């Protein structure tokens, strides 16, 4: 198992290196315009452009440029020439808000996704399955921005039940933290809950036809134990795969629409602002930040695989 983890970590380092090179090439080599001009902004003076060229290493060879820029990003020295803020510090300040949003939404969509998917599978073809299928498809079909706008209008402006977005730290006021995040949690979770329930249902129906499930039933194991110990456990692998990707993307700034509509000052809102201002240093840093979390959660997914499926543990030990 230790060798399994070491191989995954080394592979993750190689992937992050490849992503950093790709990001460097996309932002600095592929466009035909002067990269220093893009970073400095449209109204930059000639002196500012020269300063950017020197600071970012554009007057050096490509390998030296890559090393200079990665060193700036990973040592926290990247500053936005549009908003004049430290990019790494702004990302760091936005992580608590983004993490609170994503963790709360993930708990909701996993809970409802598991419940809907499980009961749809064990009642496949029945009224319960059809009703839950309709609910899941409705959730999948509702755009996040539309649902968020609708909830803001009714529950915030009209009924005045919940406050108007923003973010209050959990350590400052737990109740305010909760009330400010309820609507963002729901708006973000509805889409994923419907999708995860369909994936779990499909996976469980496939596993139910496996030989080891029929063997367990033939040995006299009751239906509840068969469904939980054999069917549900082995059906979680595709769900965990999706969760690792989705959660990594959201933590890395993928919750742009939700954070923007509810004015949650997290990484997603910072991403939207950077894209709007064409703030290339910020976009580069956010891209690498998001890639790190996607790779990290893929490693955690691999570890979860090894826990859920003994065949993976055996294969890892044999390597």
In a nutshell, what does this entry contain?
The chain has 319 residues and is mainly α. It has helices at residues 2-28, 35-40, 46-55, 62-74, 87-122, 127-141, 144-158, 174-207, 211-218, 223-254, 256-261, 267-277, 280-308, 310-318.
Present the secondary structure layout.
Elements lengths: L1 H27 L6 H6 L5 H10 L6 H13 L12 H36 L4 H15 L2 H15 L15 H34 L3 H8 L4 H32 L1 H6 L5 H11 L2 H29 L1 H9 L1
CATH architect. name of the largest domain: Orthogonal Bundle
Biggest sheet statistics: none
Mean pLDDT: 83
Radius of gyration: 24 Å
Per CATH, the superfamily of the largest domain is MetI-like
Number of domains: 2
- Write down the overall geometry: globular
Please report which band the strand proportion falls in: under 5%, 5-15%, 15-25%, 25-35%, 35-45% or over 45%: under 5%
Helix content percent band: over 70%
| CATH fold group of the largest domain | MetI-like fold
Number of helices: 14
Write up what this structure looks like:
The chain is an all-alpha fold. The chain folds into two domains: 73 residues, no CATH class; 221 residues, Orthogonal Bundle (MetI-like fold). Helix content is 79%, strand content 0%. Helix 9 packs antiparallel against helix 10, helix 10 runs antiparallel to helix 13 and helix 12 packs antiparallel against helix 13. The N and C termini lie close together (9 Å).
């Amino acid at each position: 198992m230790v060798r399994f983890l070491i191989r995954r970590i080394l592979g993750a380092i190689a992937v992050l290196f490849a992503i950093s090179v790709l990001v460097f090439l996309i932002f600095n080599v592929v466009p035909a315009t002067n990269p220093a001009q893009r970073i400095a902004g449209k109204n930059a003076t000639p002196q500012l452009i020269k300063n950017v060229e020197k600071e970012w290493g554009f007057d050096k060879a490509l390998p030296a440029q890559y090393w200079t820029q990665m060193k700036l990003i990973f040592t926290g020295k990247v500053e936005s020439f549009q908003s004049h803020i430290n990019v790494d510090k702004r990302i760091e300040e936005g992580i608590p808000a983004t993490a609170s949003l994503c963790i709360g939404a993930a708990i909701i969509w996993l809970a409802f996704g598991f419940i809907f998917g499980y009961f749809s599978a064990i009642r496949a073809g029945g009224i319960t399955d059809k009703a839950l299928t309709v609910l899941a498809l409705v959730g999948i079909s509702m755009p996040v921005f539309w649902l968020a706008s609708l909830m803001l209008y009714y529950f915030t402006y009209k009924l005045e039940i919940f406050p108007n977005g923003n973010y209050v730290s959990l350590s400052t006021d737990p109740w305010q933290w909760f009330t400010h995040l309820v609507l963002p949690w729901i708006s973000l979770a509805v889409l994923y809950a419907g999708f995860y329930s369909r994936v779990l249902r499909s996976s469980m129906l496939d596993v139910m036809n496996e030989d080891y499930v029929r063997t367990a039933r033939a040995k006299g194991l009751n239906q509840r134990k068969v469904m939980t110990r054999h069917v549900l456990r082995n059906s979680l692998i595709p769900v965990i795969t999706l969760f690792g990707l989705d959660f990594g993307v959201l933590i890395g700034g993928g919750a742009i629409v939700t954070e923007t509509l509810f004015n949650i000052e997290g990484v997603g809102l910072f991403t939207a602002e950077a894209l709007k201002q064409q703030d290339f240093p910020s976009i580069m840093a956010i891209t690498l930040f998001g890639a790190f979390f996607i790779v990290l959660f893929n490693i955690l997914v691999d570890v979860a695989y090894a826990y859920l499926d003994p065949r993976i543990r055996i294969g890892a030990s044999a390597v």
